[in-house]
Amino acid sequence: MKSSLVIFALFVFGVICGLFSLAPKWLCETDLSRYALYVLMFLVGIAAGSNRKTLKIIQAVNVKIVLVPLSAVIGTMLGVGLVSFFIPDLNVRECLAVGCGFGYYSLSSILITQIHGETLGAIALLSNISREIVTLLATPFMARYFSKLAFIASGGATAMDTTLPVITKFVGKEYAIVAVFSGTVLTLLIPFLVTFILKV
Amino acid sequence: MLAVLVIMSVGIVLGFFVRKRDRLIRIVDSLIMWAIYALLFLLGISVGVNEEIVSRIGEIGLQAIVITFAALLGSCVVAHLTYVKFFREEVNEE
Predict the structure, then answer these.
(1) Minimal C-alpha gap between A72 and chain B (Å)
(2) Do B38 and B63 sit in the same domain of this protein?
(3) A48 touches chain B (CB under 8 A)
(4) Structural domains of chain B, count
(5) Treating both helix axes as pointing N-terminal to C-terminal, what angle do A176-199 and A164-171 enclose, rounded to 10 degrees?
(6) Are B62 and B44 members of one domain?
């Protein structure tokens, strides 16, 4: 939670620097952010590959556990795909790419900015931040009217870190493992899905 | 952007081989944080200098929220169906 605030503060600080032309020119003109993204993706890969929990979870729990992140992907695609017809400015691909951030706003907004441009990147940032916030706030409601998996699926990639404490509290400890697994799988899927949707 | 996928895949393989080196993994985790900080700051700058985004921020925000709610509702409904179809019986048996 603390780091989420730092991230958001840095983004706002960046916007202010950009608005009032406070930032040195070389920061905007070089390919700095592209190389920083490469470094980030390499590090995220190492972190994912070295995660010993993921494989253990699949072995310990049922194979059916893969249905949870799959539901999040299919549900997000269906929902966003339908609503995209009501957003005149954006086409289906653009909407799907934003939806496939699964709440991991830093990674998805950077990726989308690099692939497609800043406007869609900004939409991805706002949309995925609000996915995390809404998931946190809507817990009691969802826990009551939907089944236990709904909360994990709506948390998306954040189910492995920022929304995990709330999931554990409202859905139950036995589901924490499912949440971590689903969040990890979705995190790894983001770069593949976003690239595929916007490029192919 | 194929480069991104290749780079990440290399990272995954490398990560698998260093998975027992806890100190290294901790360093990687904190480097990820710093990379994200730097990137979000840079993204902020590019949003700030982009007049199109600044002038349409209300509209952009609304589109973002609409996409979010569609994604959440879709996820909840499909996850609910998955639970009812594949998970509920098992819980009852236990």
Answers:
(1) 5
(2) no
(3) yes
(4) 2
(5) 130
(6) no
